[in-house]
C-alpha cells in the first residue's frame, strides 16, 4: 500500500503553539518532586503521620497557587513583550516600507534564495500590510503574532497538574496508611508513569523517560530525607 506523504495529511504535526504542554509537564513533575521530597524530609525527621499530611497538604496548596500565578505572569509578560515588538515593527513598516522590504529580501537571499526572486516576493508581501507585518515578525522575532500562548491556559494547566502530582505521594496517608516508605514508593511509581507519559509527546522511549524522572525525583527525596534525619537526630540529642 502506498503511503500518503505527511505534507498531504491534515495535522501531521502536533500542536506546539497552545502554551499548555510545557506548564502541564512542568507542573506535574514539580508537584511530584516537591511533595515527595517534602514528605521524605519531614518523614526523615521522625514527625507523626498527621504532621506529614499537614505538611504535604500545605505544600500542595502553596505550590499549586505559586505555579499558577508564576505561569500566568510569565506567559503574559512574554506576550506583552511580543506585542510591543510587533507594534515597533508595524511603525517601521508604515514609515520605511521600502527599507523593510529590502531587509526581508536580504534575509531570504542569505538563506539561498536568488536575489531577483527574493525581491519580487518581498515586494508582493509589502502590498498587503497585515501579511507583511506577520512575515516580518516571523522572520525577525521568530514568533507568530497570531499564535501566542494563553496565560490563562498556562496557569490553569500548571495549577491543576501540580495539584495532581503533589497529591500522589499523599494518597497512602489519606487512605489511612502510615508508612513513609509506602508513600515514597507510590510517589516513585508516579514519577515513572509521568515520565513515560511525557514520552508520548516527544517520541522518545517511554522507559528511558520514566527512568530519568524516577532518578531525578529519587535524588531529591534522598537529599531531603538525609537533611530531615540529621535535624531529627540533632534535635533528639539536644
TrEMBL record:
InterPro entries associated with the record: Ccc1_fam (IPR008217)
Source species: Micromonospora purpureochromogenes
Segments traversing the membrane: 154-175, 181-202, 214-233
Protein name: VIT1/CCC1 family predicted Fe2+/Mn2+ transporter
Membrane topology: Multi-pass membrane protein
Record-linked PANTHER family: FE(2+)/MN(2+) TRANSPORTER PCL1 (PTHR31851)
Signal peptide stretch: none
Keywords linked to the UniProt accession: Membrane, Transmembrane, Transmembrane helix
Localization in the cell: Endomembrane system
Amino acid at each position: 500500500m502506498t503511503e500518503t506523504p505527511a505534507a498531504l495529511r491534515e495535522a501531521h504535526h502536533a500542536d506546539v503553539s497552545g502554551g499548555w504542554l510545557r506548564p502541564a509537564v512542568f507542573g506535574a513533575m514539580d508537584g511530584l518532586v516537591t511533595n515527595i521530597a517534602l514528605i521524605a524530609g519531614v518523614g526523615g525527621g521522625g514527625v507523626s503521620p498527621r504532621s506529614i499530611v499537614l505538611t504535604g497538604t500545605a505544600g500542595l496548596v502553596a505550590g499549586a497557587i505559586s505555579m499558577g500565578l508564576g505561569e500566568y505572569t510569565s506567559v503574559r509578560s512574554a506576550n506583552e513583550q511580543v506585542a510591543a515588538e510587533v507594534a515597533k515593527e508595524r511603525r517601521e513598516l508604515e514609515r520605511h516600507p521600502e527599507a523593510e522590504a529590502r531587509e526581508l529580501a536580504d534575509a531570504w537571499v542569505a538563506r539561498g534564495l536568488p536575489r531577483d526572486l527574493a525581491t519580487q516576493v518581498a515586494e508582493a508581501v509589502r502590498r498587503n500590510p497585515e501579511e507583511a507585518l506577520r512575515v516580518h515578525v516571523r522572520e525577525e522575532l521568530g514568533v507568530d503574532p497570531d499564535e501566542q500562548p494563553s496565560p490563562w491556559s498556562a496557569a490553569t494547566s500548571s495549577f491543576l497538574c501540580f495539584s495532581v502530582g503533589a497529591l500522589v505521594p499523599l494518597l497512602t496517608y489519606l487512605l489511612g496508611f502510615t508508612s513513609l516508605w509506602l508513600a515514597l514508593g507510590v510517589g516513585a511509581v508516579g514519577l515513572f508513569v509521568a515520565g513515560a507519559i511525557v514520552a508520548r509527546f516527544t517520541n522518545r522511549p517511554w522507559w528511558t523517560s520514566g527512568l530519568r524522572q524516577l532518578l531525578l525525583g529519587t535524588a531529591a527525596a534522598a537529599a531531603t530525607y538525609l537533611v530531615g534525619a540529621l535535624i531529627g537526630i540533632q534535635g533528639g540529642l539536644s
